[in-house]
Amino acid sequence: MTETHPADLTVRPATPEDRPTVERLWLMFHHDLSEFRGSLPCPDGAFRNERVECAFTRRDWAPYLFQCDGRPVGFAFVRALDRPVRVLNSFFVVRGARRRGIGTRAVRDVLRRHPGAWEIAFQHDNPAAVRFWPSVARDLAGDAWTRELRPVPDRPEVPPDVWISFAVTG
Fold this sequence. Notes:
The protein is an alpha+beta fold. It has helices at 19-37, 50-57, 102-112, 127-141, and strands at 9-13, 62-68, 71-79, 85-93, 116-123, 145-150, 161-168. A 7-stranded mixed β-sheet has the order 1-2-3-4-5-7-6, with helices on both faces.
């Protein structure tokens, strides 16, 4: 894939003032995931957002916002910052910004801010994720990464998630 770099990609910690923007991006993220999980919105049209709450309130989580030319194009939530293995809990790039290298650049930035061991989960039924996440692991860790299927907690009706594990240096 050829990367075309936008003039201005910014990856930064999301602030409380960014929360409404991240919540709108969260709706798009969950809408995309609903294709692979069969999840439906709540009666008010929103999706469950406990992870947004955790990202903005818990000390062991960190929310990030991605912007291109001042416009929001994605986000990431990191959790387990107080543990030996960090988890990229959620990662999203809006469809209009995909396939231009933005996601790769953003995830590199986020992961390198927290050097050490990482785990990232994705759905095997999501072909873009199946291509993207192993390429990220190879890019950051060479051949020193693993892949494992794990059941989704409290969701026996959905296929297991694919988890990749690797280490990132600063």
